[in-house]
Specification:
CATH architecture of the largest domain: 3-Layer(aba) Sandwich
Number of domains: 3
Oligomer: single chain
Strand order of the largest sheet: 5-6-7-3-8-9
Distance between the termini: 56 Å
Shape: globular
Low-confidence stretches: 265-284, 305-309
Length: 553
Amino acid sequence: MEILRVEDLRFAYQISPDKQALDGVSFALERGDLLCVCGATGGGKSTLLKMLKRELTPLGKKSGRVLIGGKSPEEMSEHESAATVGYVMQRPEQQIVTDKVWHELAFGLENLAVPQKEIRRRVSEIAGYFGIESWFEMSTDELSGGQKQLLNLAAVMVMQPEILVLDEPTAQLDPIAASNFIATVVKLNRELALTVVIVEHRLEDIIPVSDKLLVLEDGKVVSFGDTRDCVGRLIGNERLLRSMPAAVRIYAATHDISKNTFPVKDTDEVKQGAPRTDTDMGKNSRLPLDVCEGRSYIENNFGNAIRSESVTDAEAPEGEYALEFKEVYLRYTKDGSDVLRGMDLRVRKGEIFCILGGNGAGKSTAVSAAAGLIRPYSGQIKVFGKKIKDYRGQELYRNCVAMLPQDVQTVFTEDSIDGRHPYDLSGGEQQLAALKIVLETEPRLLILDEPTKGIDVYAAEQMGKKLRELADSGVTVVIVTHDVEFAARLADRCALLFNGEITSCDRAKAFFSGNYFYTTAANRMTRGFYDGVVTSEDAVRLCRLNADKQTVR
């Protein structure tokens, strides 16, 4: 049964009427479909999602139709709109409106005038389903990023929507929390026949479980249909292919020399009961989508001739230190717990240093302290050999230290960027615009907190090239990131921050090769028969080398 139809949808923002943010978008979904919407940064994904929720529709010129259960959003009452379409935003803090977890779960139902008895029943049921009982009474500002986003999802689901819309919900989550969040969304989709529309740039987890894929570029539909078919049609489109899961990228670069056979998992294993379709048996049935299928593809085609081939790793640059932490302790309130607990860290001049770790581990706190924005109560922080407390006035920020914060909207001081208000830009566009502003200060130490949040892989690679150029010119770059693929490609060294202290620090390839969860999909696919692989390019190189050796034999 069809639940959502979009017909020739066109939209231009009021501030830039000559530019089509959406240009003739058309597609339809059946009840219970899980649709992944992907594409380049600024391609119209977030704009499309806002068209599905009347309260979020931006100002501008619109044509075409959106039908939800046969009705346009404009025809729905406020009650219908709130209860029919649930919307989860990219930034968890922007959606939470109350001070307690239990009240956040009840807030939407209270506004819909649901009887108190039913509110108690629904809230207790949803808290149990999402495993929220242990933090049910907590203050919302005490939650980790993963807990906040899970709470947002639960607060939407307690209103029992027919369509769940998610705009990059894992952008601010660490890899483990992001994987758990996606697993929860898939569970809701499969168990409740809930229709899900999700925009994501981190496609490693969502593409293998999505039923359908919608690819947008410059506001137009590039591809729409069953996921495996759609992905197959993207092979040859270099920019969009870069955003696909590692298994797809490796296949695209090696299928010309492979035997092109490997066992694809039955659809019912992947979709939990859905029947095998003609698409699954079609021309792209050999196209791997996830780590398991990718590993089977590599093992069956390239995995026998080369064992324990080590991928060399360039030494991190030696030299004096741009940033030093020594036994740093920091807490936000006198009676609160320590966020940093005796943290030790040294970052060399001219290197790119990435800090990874779970939500709430202290990463943002650490880089805020490095930028002089907050002060530890014990320990010592030095920037270019000088204690931060010895910098006077604005000396620390005059061609010395600059920071791109996680909330990039705090960087904007003008009402217009390229003819659009900064808040009308997509999350990725805001990231790129804010970085450009920060770089105008010409810092020697550049600190970036989640710089790839909300941007596609191609844009992240362009950002990485710029950061590498800066590092080669002598600028030191310190990056807090959940994007392990970005860190694996770019970093000289990486560190893992856990419970307020650095527990691991090594050269990038050694760091990711030794990790089991904080590592790349390419490493998971080749672990045990290709040593040192952390990027899809590493895997492709060894697959081709393996194929050459097999040919010689």
